[in-house]
């Protein structure tokens, strides 16, 4: 399931569809596009006029000495036209720069936003390194495609058309036939060989993404690699991908050399035939020396862009291959979407109700079976059970990271599938078991709960989470960078940052998913007191491993293998002498052993 549908042929978009996807971004600056295209035409007209003026200069100078006059006007015109062909091109690039960069920005942001809108299922299956490399190459491909397709292929085709028109109207039809056949052979060779070479480029992309994915995954898990002394193993795995990439890259380069040689041979044959024909016409007297210079200049003028056209076509094909993978990300369907008529959630005095909920992550592995319970407004309902019993799944469903297969989840009698995801998640605050922080400052990570909060509010939240004094003891205080995924902080410190972040969010509904699991007993007691204070008068769902932390909950639900097997208060459940009572007894024994271990 790691492919995320990026490697299959079915995922490949057609080139026309990829190009069409860019048109709306171009049309945002329609005046700039039209002006750029106008400058493009002017530049090519000036370029094609240069050999015509050169012919007149040569013919003027090829007179008997007695009547020889320096064609000053023609020479100046020649210089002006040469300047214009370059100047108009540079102006065109300057005007179009904003169009290209804005298109890159818009597409990259659209992909980024779309990735955030995809379901948790997609993000659990994706490979971060590969996805980031796909976006990087795709945006680079947009820049190349826009610039070279509009300003190299189109003007080259325009120039070829103008040259053929001049040659047909003024000279022997054979000049046009030779140029046309040379172009035809050149384009045919370029298309056929480039299509064959694309398999090497796609293999290179695939191996590059795989290598990048593995490298990032390995670096993120640096400590685990060190724990098991597997540096050589990781390097070997990385090199396997690079080896496949190297083979494809070598084939790519050797096939490119073959293509370039073939293109040069075709051009050389075409130029030779043209010059032989022109020289013959000069000898016959039907063409002047100026005409020969004109034909030669046209061929040299066409040769460079034509040779470049082969390179541009290859690169455009490569850019399209690069963009395929990025646009495939945009084709990923959002599993969880707001209904067209979705309304904001009214979460004031929230009452939560799970009503006959059945759920499975995979069709053949059901997690929850007919789960029904109610969390009355302002009360704290605890969920306990062995690992894998489905406790944390309740939190994921309440956040609507997934939709239930049957049954429903209601908040104040509103089905959460009928309200906007933004309003639903704004109403819920969570302190997760595994806190992941951004590689930024402690201040930023706490402020993430409510980015528009004042400094004073952030300090109050930190004090409430009993982390303010610790932060103030650090050399850089709140500006301290926490490292990738918060690895520079201990588990307990990360947990306190998560609690401060949730306090700052000030939600109507609270979820504590084993929120104090990373804390020692003394810290846990202090934080538990604080959690009880912030949970007061809020609807709270507490998912717990240590039963002592939820003994005073309004009601405790006991889960086993996806079902609620018992429910009631702490005292009532002990009196039942069932699953909860056995779990309680087991934990008391463990705590007694720990205490004996410390005292002995």
Describe what you observe in this structure.
With 600 residues, the chain is α/β, with parallel strands linked by helices. It has two domains: 9-331, ABC transporter type 1, transmembrane domain (ABC transporter transmembrane region fold); 344-427 and 554-600, P-loop containing nucleotide triphosphate hydrolases (Rossmann fold, 3-Layer(aba) Sandwich). It has 18 helices and ten strands. The chain has helices spanning 15-26, 30-61, 72-117, 120-125, 128-170, 173-220, 222-227, 231-284, 289-331, 391-398, 421-426, 442-447, 455-464, 468-473, 491-505, 521-535, 570-576, 579-599; strands at residues 352-362, 365-375, 380-385, 406-411, 414-415, 428-431, 509-513, 539-544, 555-560, 563-568. The strands form two sheets. The chain has a six-stranded mixed beta sheet, with helices on both faces. The protein has a four-stranded antiparallel beta sheet with strand order 2-1-4-5, with helices on one face. Helix 2 runs antiparallel to helix 3 and helix 6 (173-220) runs antiparallel to helix 8. The chain is elongated, with a radius of gyration of 36 Å.
């Amino acid at each position: 399931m790691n492919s995320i549908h990026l490697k299959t042929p079915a995922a490949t978009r057609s080139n026309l569809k990829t190009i069409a996807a860019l048109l709306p971004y171009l049309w945002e600056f329609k005046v700039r596009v039209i002006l750029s295209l106008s400058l493009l035409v002017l530049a090519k007209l000036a370029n094609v006029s240069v050999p015509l003026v050169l012919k007149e200069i040569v013919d003027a100078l090829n007179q008997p000495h007695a009547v020889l006059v320096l064609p000053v006007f023609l020479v100046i015109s020649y210089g002006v036209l040469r300047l214009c062909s370059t100047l108009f091109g540079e102006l065109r690039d300057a005007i179009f720069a904003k169009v290209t960069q804005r298109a890159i920005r818009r597409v990259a942001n659209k992909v980024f936003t779309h990735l955030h809108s995809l379901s948790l299922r997609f993000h659990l299956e994706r490979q971060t390194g590969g996805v980031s490399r796909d976006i990087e190459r795709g945006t680079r491909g947009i820049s190349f495609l826009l610039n070279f397709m509009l300003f190299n292929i189109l003007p080259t085709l325009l120039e070829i058309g103008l040259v053929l028109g001049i040659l047909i109207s003024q000279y022997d039809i054979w000049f046009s036939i030779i140029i046309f056949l040379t172009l035809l052979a050149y384009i045919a060779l370029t298309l056929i060989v480039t299509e064959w070479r694309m398999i090497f480029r796609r293999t290179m992309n695939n191996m590059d993404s795989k290598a990048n994915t593995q490298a990032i995954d390995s670096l993120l898990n640096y400590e685990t690699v060190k724990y098991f002394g597997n540096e050589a193993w990781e390097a070997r795995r990385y090199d396997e991908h690079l080896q496949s990439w190297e083979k494809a890259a070598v084939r790519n380069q050797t096939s490119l050399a073959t293509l370039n040689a073939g293109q040069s041979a075709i051009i050389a044959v075409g130029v030779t035939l043209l010059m032989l024909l022109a020289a013959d016409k000069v000898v016959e007297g039907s063409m002047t020396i100026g005409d020969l210079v004109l034909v030669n200049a046209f061929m040299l003028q066409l040769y460079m862009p034509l040779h470049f056209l082969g390179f541009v076509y290859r690169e455009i094909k490569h850019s399209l291959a690069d963009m395929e993978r990025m646009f495939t990300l945009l084709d990923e369907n959002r599993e969880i979407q707001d209904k067209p008529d979705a309304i904001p959630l009214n979460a004031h005095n929230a009452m939560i109700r799970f009503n006959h909920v059945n759920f499975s992550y995979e069709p053949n592995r059901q997690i929850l079976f007919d789960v029904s319970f109610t969390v009355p407004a302002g009360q704290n309902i605890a969920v306990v059970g062995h690992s894998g019993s489905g406790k944390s799944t309740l939190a994921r469903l309440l956040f609507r990271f997934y939709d239930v297969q049957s049954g429903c989840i209601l908040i104040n009698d509103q089905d959460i599938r009928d309200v906007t995801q933004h309003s639903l998640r704004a109403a819920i605050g969570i302190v997760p078991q595994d806190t992941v922080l951004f590689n930024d400052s402690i201040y930023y990570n706490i402020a993430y709960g409510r980015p528009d909060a004042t400094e004073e509010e952030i300090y109050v939240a930190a004090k409430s989470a009993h982390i303010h004094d610790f932060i103030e003891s650090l050399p850089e205080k709140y500006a301290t960078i926490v490292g990738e995924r918060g690895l520079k902080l201990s588990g307990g410190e990360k947990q306190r940052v998560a609690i401060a972040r949730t306090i700052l969010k000030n939600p109507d509904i609270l979820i504590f998913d084993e929120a104090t699991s990373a804390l020692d007993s003394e810290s846990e007691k202090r934080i538990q007191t604080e959690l009880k204070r912030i949970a007061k008068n809020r609807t709270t769902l507490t998912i717990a491993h240590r039963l002592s932390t939820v003994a005073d909950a309004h009601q405790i639900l006991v889960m086993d293998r996806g079902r609620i097997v018992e429910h009631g208060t702490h005292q009532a459940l002990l009196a039942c002498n069932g699953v909860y009572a056995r779990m309680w007894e087991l934990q008391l024994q463990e705590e007694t052993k720990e205490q004996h271990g410390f005292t002995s």
